[in-house]
Design a protein that fits this description.
This protein has about 140 residues and is an all-alpha fold. The protein has a domain of about 90 residues. Helices cover about 85% and strands about 0% of the residues. The protein contains five helices and no strands. The longest helix is centred in the last third of the chain and has 31 residues. The chain is globular and about 50 Å long. The mean pLDDT is about 85.
Length: about 140
């Protein structure tokens, strides 16, 4: 029983941390991909890092521009979903990784991971929507 309570408390703590960092899941994934692509193409460490930073900034700028200028709700939803999908995957992996040694039931483990992933994905949508509105409200 103590391990289950510990797993729940650690999961909640990790979800609070992930709640605040959820909007960075897509830029981090694009930065890693761009750095690996540049490194594989023969660029050095500095150029790989610059391409990673450029790809991350470009992905954030593109979504914020879409949120700021698009009036079509379907297009805005697609832009927000583009950020939410990596956040859901990261949230699921985070919760699953924390609780896999404390919970034996695969069904409970997958349900808890799914709930954590959905919470993190919703937080990414909420945080990014607020960020997009605040940037263009000035």
């Amino acid at each position: 029983m103590t391990l289950i309570l510990l797993a729940i408390s650690l999961t909640l703590t990790a979800c609070v941390i992930a709640w605040n960092l959820a909007i960075y899941a897509l830029p981090v994934m694009t930065a890693i991909t761009a750095a690996q692509l540049a490194w594989g193409a023969g660029a050095g460490v500095l150029l790989s890092g610059l391409s990673a930073a450029g790809a991350a900034l470009l992905s954030v700028a593109l979504v914020i521009l879409v949120l700021g200028f698009a009036r079509n709700p379907v297009l805005r939803f697609i832009a927000l979903a583009l950020f939410a999908v990596p956040a859901v995957i990261a949230g699921y992996a985070l919760v699953y990784g924390i609780t896999k040694n404390a919970i034996d039931s695969n069904l409970a483990l997958n349900l808890l991971g799914g709930i954590g992933g959905l919470v993190i994905g919703v937080s990414a949508v909420i945080n990014l929507n607020a960020l997009g509105e605040s940037v263009f409200s000035r």
